[in-house]
Design brief:
single chain; mainly beta; SH3 type barrels; OB fold (Dihydrolipoamide Acetyltransferase, E2P); 3 domains; six-stranded antiparallel β-sheet
Length: 185
């Protein structure tokens, strides 16, 4: 048990009989009122996020967590298959756990899987990934005003905005948190 004041992003807590991942935490002290902790948590069971408020002295139960590095192998109708690089064991996760991360998964990409009480609860991508552009229209000469972009389709199927000088077949660096183009790889 810890004080709500000690909550940090990424922790797993027990809330209303369910395990929840802390997504965001803010400590607030409004005017002449008592301090409190405002947190956004996501239920592991339902995958729904909620905004909760704890008294700053309230006790919160922590759940033991384990992080494992796995490499993405492939995806099929059964799910997303990952391999443990140490034991060569294959683990399959459903789309509910993978979520938006599927837009950045390429073969042999190392990801961190967060386990709470022996169950996979969250997939953490690296901050950026290098992806190949499979389709992009030609930039039109004369469209050279500052920050002019065009759509480009990545090898995973995600469409991002890139500068006019980027062509098909090039490998670009993409921010996995925002989905924004960062530069050539």
């Amino acid at each position: 048990m810890i004080n709500a004041n000690d909550l940090k992003k990424g922790m797993a807590i027990r809330y209303n009989g369910d395990i929840a991942i802390v997504l965001e935490v803010q400590h607030r002290t409004p005017g002449n009122l008592r301090a409190f902790v405002q947190a956004i948590i996501r239920s592991v069971r339902t995958q729904k996020s909620s905004d909760v408020r704890f008294s700053s002295t309230e006790k919160v139960e922590l759940v033991e967590m384990e992080r494992r590095k796995l490499e993405f192998s492939y995806a099929d109708k059964e799910g997303y298959h990952f391999m443990d690089p140490e034991t060569y064991e294959t683990v399959t996760f459903q789309e509910a756990l993978v979520g938006e991360a599927k837009d950045y998964l390429v073969e042999n990409l190392a990801v961190e899987i967060l386990y709470a009480e022996g169950r996979a609860v969250q997939l953490d991508l690296p901050a950026s990934v290098n992806l190949k552009i499979t389709e992009s229209p030609e930039g039109v000469r004369g469209d050279s005003a500052s920050n002019v972009t065009k759509p480009a389709t990545l090898e995973t199927g995600k469409v991002i905005q890139v500068p006019l000088f980027i062509n098909e077949g090039e490998v670009v660096k993409v921010d996995t948190r925002t989905g924004a183009y960062m530069g050539r790889a």
